[in-house]
Amino acid sequence: MSVNTNYSQPSSVSNNLGSLDRSFSTSLSALGAELAFIQDVEGRYLSFYWQQAEKEFAQQTAETLEEFFTPVEQKTYQAKLQQVLQSQVPEQCHWLFRCGQKLFYLDVIIAPVFAANTQAKTVLVMGRSRETLQQVETANSSMTTSSEFKKLLTQIARNIRRTLDLDIIWQQAVDSLGKALGATQCTIYSYLPEQGYLRAVAEYVSEPTPSMLGLEVLTAQEPSFRQALTTLQPIVIEKTNQFTRTQQTQLIVATCYQDQPNSLISLLYNNQHEQDCPRQWNVTEIELVGELADQIGTAIAHATLYKELEQARQQAEEASRLKSEFLANTSHEIRTPLNGMIGFLKLILEGMADDPQEQQEFIQEAYRSAIHLLDIINDILDIAKIEAGKMELELGPVKLDELFVAVEDFTRAQAEQKNLSFHIYQPDTSDEIILHGNYQRLKQVLLNLVSNALKFTHEGGITISADIVRKKFTFQNQEFPGIVKVRVADTGIGVSLDKQDKLFQSFSQVDGSRTRQYGGTGLGLTISQKLVEAMGGTVNFYSMGEGLGSTVTFTVPLYQEPVMVSTPAESFEA
């Protein structure tokens, strides 16, 4: 039906309709479209035709046609009119129109109307109602008004805030958003700025779609993702599915906490047919989705903080457990030499020695027990200083051969008692090898490593060696000509690969029962590592597994480069 001055309408609407151009109104019906009208850039009707006008316009008393038959989102619609007039290119889309108290979901084509030698200033809009009633009913359901739409999103936010489990929050977010907004696929990506990439951690799909779970996306390679993360504003893009070649609409919105993005949500819509119009997002929907994203971002931040606190609590409990186990083992280690001292001294005091020679043996045993006890106490004091950050070392020249001789004097006899071979190898040089470090602490490190090797080796032997690596090295603003790499290798019981990460943890022992069997506090490697690092070096442990022996290496700055008889190593691998 064409609208013209002869068409009878109630009062004020008829006045408005009567002002429309009758010639245009008559010709619009000839176009064969269900709906056709001409509008200016402001959205005012210049001519109007609609097959359902007689039915739908009856008993309506709107002031103007613009108020009576109008798009739900007028600002967005007017922006589309301006876009068409500026580009001078027709566009196909779909809009939700309100006619009195009813809503109509229309497929429309908006085309500029060209006049002779002038730029188009009006548009011709032709359209049709969606064929299925389901879409019209959906448009008239709870999603038709912003208040009901907001109520739905508020309910989603409330459900998400009920948990502090990050995985549940991610999955609830995509499931709720995907279902509520009718998305083909809804994906949430976790984001940490320092990583520089996004990782898909949860998704919702309403139809068979390639899964995005686990996909890692570099932000530098996705301009739309990068823009959403940078601006914290929702972005709508249209693209072509590379597999089906159908059009897709994607809404991308970043979640944030205190203006810092922490994830990204992607809502993807597939067009079932080529003639289908892309999903149109109105301003209200975008704003509400943005508000929900902020709440999701807050929930993610709180859940992340809770997870970090839970991890810290578990670590604290584990540290407390390790310290308790350490104290139990250490108290046993302290009692053993202390009881030995008391026992031998008591025998002497009670005159239980048969002769002066036996009395001298008792005194020597008490002395050895006292030295062992002193070593244990020194280890405890050293680790206490290290934990408190109060370990200070005076560094200077140290001769490598003197260090090796001192260690050999202390340990060779123990190796011979166990029928173990004991070898020391030094680089072949014409002069002395001088290190930069602390003599007492370097000797302590070597004794710790060799003592461990002796303790855990029952057959085979111990080998101590050193290599010179000519590679300039700077430590504490002082340049050195190279480093010395010292190795202590044994053919002992070794350590399984899955337990080696515990070797250098304070108060942590690879096997508490093994410590009971072999004795010791389990602090040797930890103290050695800290001492070597304080002197500018590194410590590394190597073992192929249980029963396959082990090798410990540490490096020390070379004070001055010696004259080599043979060619030294040119590169260093810790």
Describe the overall structure.
Helix content is about 40%, strand content about 25%. By secondary structure, the chain is of the alpha+beta class. The chain has helices at about 10-20, 20-30, 55, 65-70, 75-85, 135-140, 145-160, 165-180, 225-230, 285-350, 355-390, 400-415, 440-455, 510-520, 525-535, and strands at about 35-40, 45-50, 70, 90-100, 100-115, 120-130, 185-190, 195-205, 215-220, 235-240, 245-255, 260-270, 395-400, 420-425, 435, 460-470, 475, 480, 480-490, 540, 550-560. It is elongated and about 135 Å long. Strand 17 (about 475) and strand 18 (about 480) form a beta hairpin.
List the topology elements.
Layout: H1 11-18, H2 22-29, E1 35-40, E2 45-50, H3 53-56, H4 65-68, E3 69-71, H5 74-87, E4 91-99, E5 102-115, E6 118-129, H6 133-139, H7 146-160, H8 166-180, E7 185-192, E8 197-205, E9 216-218, H9 223-231, E10 235-240, E11 247-257, E12 260-270, H10 283-349, H11 356-388, E13 396-399, H12 400-417, E14 421-425, E15 434-437, H13 439-455, E16 461-469, E17 473-475, E18 478-480, E19 482-490, H14 512-518, H15 524-534, E20 539-542, E21 550-560
Parallel strand pairs: 14-16
Antiparallel strand pairs: 1-2, 1-6, 3-4, 4-5, 5-6, 7-8, 7-12, 8-9, 10-11, 11-12, 13-15, 15-21, 16-19, 17-18, 19-21, 20-21
Helix pairs in contact: 7-8, 7-10, 8-10, 10-11, 11-15, 12-13, 13-15
